[in-house]
Amino acid sequence: MLTKIIAQPKIDHFNKWFERADSIVIISHVSPDGDAMGSSLGLANFLESQEKTVNVIMPNAFPDFLRWMPGSKGVLLYDKYKEYADELIAKADVICCLDFNALKRIDDMADAVHESKARKVMIDHHLYPEDFCKIIISHPEISSTSELVFRLICRMGYYDDISYECAQCIYTGMMTDTGGFTYNSNNEEIYFIISQLLSKGIDKDDIYRKVFNTYSESRLRLMGHILTTMHVYKDHHTALISLTEAEQSNFKYIKGDSEGFVNIPLSIKDVCFSCFLREDTEKEMIKVSLRSVGTFPCNQLAAEFFNGGGHLNASGGEFYGTMADAVKVFEQAIDKYKPLLIKKGL
Ligand code: 5GP
Ligand code: MN
């Protein structure tokens, strides 16, 4: 049995909307990851099974390694089909906002969502949800939004209607947001849910391979390059990796190629904090990704130095300036946070 973590009045409220709604739009955050896609496509699959008209709209493209996901072909990309997407958002009965807590996380889609008269529900696990949805199902203690979608469907009484495809999507989100169940994954109920998803027929080992082992040769070579240029700040138990525009073109970088790189330095014994700086040509900024092991608050450092935020152990932000300046700011940041940068207890 699962603990009833979502409050009953929220389930009742959502149920009322669900019964009345015909047209439902599901949206998630910019640069959708496995959990954004998994929760959105999983919920979409379920709602379609209940004869609802569902449109999944993402602010921009999702990575190639998620293309196999059931329903991914029907995902509408806002940056490509803005007019049509605006119309769907404006006319929807209900908009489900999945895996994000603030309108700025959906980039250019924010205005359309803000202005839409649709009823809005947030289903998310990021800290400090903003107040732009009538129903807010926000559980930062839960490691993925996909898990929350599973819990919601079950609490609505539809476990039996979860299809094989829906189960595949939910598992993908749970797996990717926990690094293949290697962090944020000690809640025993995760494994109860996995056993239920297995009973729907999913092949979890195959999903792992599809997501993590389908990279290109150039991605692996890029990884090699990044690791040779990695800087380790021994006294700070910290590592920094970076990727400039020039390096990206040398290695024929395509979107998604650096997914997961930020986690690699954490495999060094005494490193508890890792940072990845990547020049983003489209947005003319440096994307900052931060990961930690243990108690180091990535989200505090991200908020203070990189106008960002996120979870304790996985956060991100942005830097407007040169790579050299970003590195300088990062070095100031780790100097300031040095007392908290302690060895892993191994
Ligand atoms: P990633 O490093 O995978 O891009 O992001 C990890 C987590 O950090 C995300 O799930 C999100 O919670 C948070 N995050 C990433 N970028 C930003 C950002 O620019 N602003 C905020 N507030 N959070 C971010
Ligand atoms: Mn997530």
A few lines on this structure:
By secondary structure, the chain is an alpha/beta fold. It has helices spanning 8-20, 34-49, 82-91, 110-115, 145-155, 164-176, 188-199, 204-212, 217-229, 245-250, 298-306, 323-336; strands at 23-27, 53-58, 76-77, 94-98, 119-124, 135-138, 231-233, 238-243, 273-280, 285-292, 309-310, 314-319.
| Secondary-structure-derived class | alpha/beta
Query: Order of strands in the sheet with the most strands?
Result: 3-2-1-4-5-6
Bound small molecules, which ones? guanosine-5'-monophosphate, manganese (II) ion
CATH architecture call of the largest domain: Alpha-Beta Complex
Helix proportion of residues, in percent?
Answer: 25-40%
Gyration radius, in Å: 20 Å
Distance between the termini: 34 Å
Give the low-confidence spans. none
Strand content: 15-25%
CATH-wise, what's the superfamily of the largest domain? Answer: inorganic pyrophosphatase (n-terminal core)
Shape: globular
Number-wise, the strands total: 12
Can you tell me about this structure?
The chain has helices spanning 8-20, 34-49, 82-91, 110-115, 145-155, 164-176, 188-199, 204-212, 217-229, 245-250, 298-306, 323-336, and strands spanning 23-27, 53-58, 76-77, 94-98, 119-124, 135-138, 231-233, 238-243, 273-280, 285-292, 309-310, 314-319. It is an alpha/beta fold and 346 residues long. It folds into two domains: 8-212, Alpha-Beta Complex (inorganic pyrophosphatase (n-terminal core)); 217-345, Diaminopimelate Epimerase, Chain A, domain 1. Strands 3-2-1-4-5-6 form a six-stranded parallel β-sheet, sandwiched between helices. It has a six-stranded mixed β-sheet with strand order 7-8-9-10-12-11. Helix 10 (245-250) links the parallel strand 8 (238-243) and strand 9 (273-280). Helix 2 (34-49) packs parallel to helix 5. The mean pLDDT is 96. Bound molecules: guanosine-5'-monophosphate and manganese (II) ion. Guanosine-5'-monophosphate (5GP) binds at residues 126, 262, 289, 308-311, 314-318.
